[in-house]
Amino acid sequence: MLGLIHNELLVIAGRWRSYIGFIGISILMPLILWGFSVGGEELHRDYARELGGTFMIVGSILNSFLATYIIMNTLWIHIPFLVTLAAGDSVAADGANGIFRITLTRSVSRFKILVSKLMASYIYTALLLIFCAFWSLGIGSIVLGTGDLIVIDNGILILDESQAWVRMAFSFLLAILVMCMVATLCFMFSTMTNNAVGPIIGTIFLIIIGYMIMSIPLEIFEKIEPYVFVKYFNVWWDAFKDPIPWGEIGKKLGVLGAYSVTCFGVATYVFLKKDIKT
Amino acid sequence: MILETKNLTKSFGLRKAVDGLNLEIPDGSVYGFLGPNGSGKSTTIRMMTALISPDEGEVFIQGKSVQKLGNKALSSVGALIERADFHKHLSGETNLEMLARMDGTDMSRVQTVLDRTGLGNRGKDKVKTYSQGMKQRLGIAQALLSNPRLLILDEPTNGLDPQGMKDVRDLVRELASEGITIFISSHLLDEVQKICSHVAMISQGKLKTAGPIEDLLKDSDLLMTEIHVNPLAPAIELLSNQDWIHRCEENNGILSVGISHDKMSDLVQLLVQNDLQVSAVIPRTSLEDVFLSKVGKENQI
Lengths: 278, 301
Description:
The complex is a heterodimer of chains A (about 280) and B (about 300). With about 280 residues, chain A is mainly alpha-helical. Chain A contains ten helices and two strands. Chain A has helices at about 1-15, 20-50, 65-70, 80-95, 100-105, 110-145, 160-190, 195-215, 220-225, 245-275, and strands at about 150, 155-160. In chain A, helix 4 packs parallel to helix 7 (about 160-190). Chain A is globular. In chain B, helix 3 (about 90-105) crosses helix 4 (about 110-115). The radius of gyration of chain B is 23 Å and the shape is elongated.
């Protein structure tokens, strides 16, 4: 299995499309960090206004942790899009390029090949988020410095620097798991077509539909909401709550996990039954 | 039998692509698989190699059912299905290493098969720099990678120039001499006749005939006969008006006539009786003639 995953990673590494996400992050992050460093005063003022009556603020609230906390909001739609670039290609591209005529005639089970492709997509997803963390936390620390993280969300939580590092790492870990669910959804679509664009559009479309259901205040949508996977994307926010709501995190990951297992189950059924005609 | 199909059937929508196909491929043979475009050759081969599931029937490789065991049954098979497609952005060598890694083949085989297919010095180049002929050779290299006992080649000479076709032919002969069974589909009848010991012909998904080529040529209802006759024009006119003569064509001053075996003497007698000088009568039935008699002219390859 490791050999198969190695193969899939070689394929992902060889496709230029795989680097779009990394290039995008490398362009976007310096821009955002630069924006924070030169225009962060306004943000600082807003925070100070919120906290001024209660706390005495010494120094700057704006640091790499706060910047990362804000940047992580890109997880709602931007990062999912970048994740789908590899997952969408995963199965569909091999079908379109005729690679399956070579690989699926060997004495290796289709299931193993499918699992290795999914694992490689997960590794790509994790690397993408780690790269994002490297920029926002690593380079961000150099540009904006570090300090306490102040989170305003149903109250005020102040995390000292050592705690902030741990919570950030935990939050990124949760974000990776969320994005792996997105990758699995896209992967499922990838088994159904021989065109990589379809799975990407399908996945982003479902995410947008999910956000719409969540944001439109209609009774019917409120009933559907618990079944919309997008509702549980915010699990990474729970890393910044005190105390950490482990039960809530477990529930959200459970729902996302169930979606992932279902998507993989469908992908397996489709792929094992698939006639290779290309 | 190293490869057998039993009642193999596959439909796409309302169209039956393969219809109750029974084939028996003897161990050590070079087996040609012939049929016009759309006759079901590729679908059959894809069912043999687990790419397509049959609606009915089974494929057995060394007695193991491909449909029951899936890809496990393909452990002794090397296959090249139609055009050889690889990861173009990777080198030929890396592509083969990936395939070797998939089924646990020894990595030393990579260089061996690259050398064998004449790609030894181009292995490190990216596949996108390869010509069509080189890609096809790389396709054969990957089929040979796991030291197969049975090689399944679907139109391996497609897109190759005459030299490339000859190279593939020579390689097939060489592999056959080493005892590898080769099942090869082609629409080039002449090529099949040159390299195959056995042949099966299908049309509209159904088996028309199968067996050793020598037997098929011998048993053919149609005897193609080359006749050196003078003068030519009246001979053509005369023979074309006989309903027992199936074909009458002129090629470079020589008449090629298709008749039943028992009509040979009638043919000569007819020509002589009409004051035409017959200097030679040479039986020359080819695989193409057998094909045309079995599959019909409307399905010409």
